[in-house]
Amino acid sequence: MISSRCQQYDRPDQARAYSQFRPDPPKELVEVVIGYLEQEVPDPFGLAVDVGCGTGQSTLALASYFRSVLGCDVSKFQIMEAALCRKATNVQYR
């Protein structure tokens, strides 16, 4: 069960609008994150988990750097929108 605050994002219309109007993360930000991982983590390219992934903008941005990426969100409609619009063979949404 999700809280009433979270329920405002658990609607099909909200998920579509979020997907349409939320910008993708800047490429520079993704490069900074990957650069940090390359320096600090022995094998950073196994699994990435995007908690609170919404409609998957950041999840998909990580897909080309990791063998597997898992996007998680409490909203089933956000997850459905992510799975519909932001696909990659190494990405799953739950």
TrEMBL record:
Per the record, which residues fall in region Disordered? Answer: 1-21
- Pfam short name (any one): Methyltransf_25
Which GO molecular function, any one, fits this protein according to its record?
methyltransferase activity
Q: Which InterPro entries match?
A: Diverse_substrate_MTase, Methyltransf_25, SAM-dependent_MTases_sf
Question: Which GO biological process entries does UniProt record here?
Answer: methylation
Q: Where is the Methyltransferase domain?
A: 49-86
Superkingdom field: Eukaryota
Coiled-coil annotated residue ranges, if any: none
Provide this UniProt record's keywords sorted from A to Z.
Answer: Methyltransferase, Transferase
Q: What is this protein called?
A: Methyltransf_25 domain-containing protein
